[in-house]
# Entry
Amino acid sequence: MERSVGLNNAQLGVLKLLSTLKSDEEVNELKQVISTYYAQKATAEMDALWEKGLWSEQKNQDVLKEHLRTPYK
# Structure
C-alpha cells in the first residue's frame, strides 16, 4: 500500500508563490528566473570541480565522445 506524504515547507512556499501569479507572462518570467538560478548553481559546481582538479578539458573531450544511447534490439 502506498503511503501518502504531505508537502514539506519549501514545497508549500513555492505553491504559495505560484498562487500569486496572474498571467502567462508572469509564469514565463518566473520560469526564466528559476532556470537562471539552476544554471548558476550548475556553473558554480563545475567551477568547483575544475578548481579541485576533478574536471579538465580532457574530461570534457571524453564526455563529448561518449555514446550514451540505449542500444535497441
In short: The radius of gyration is 20 Å.
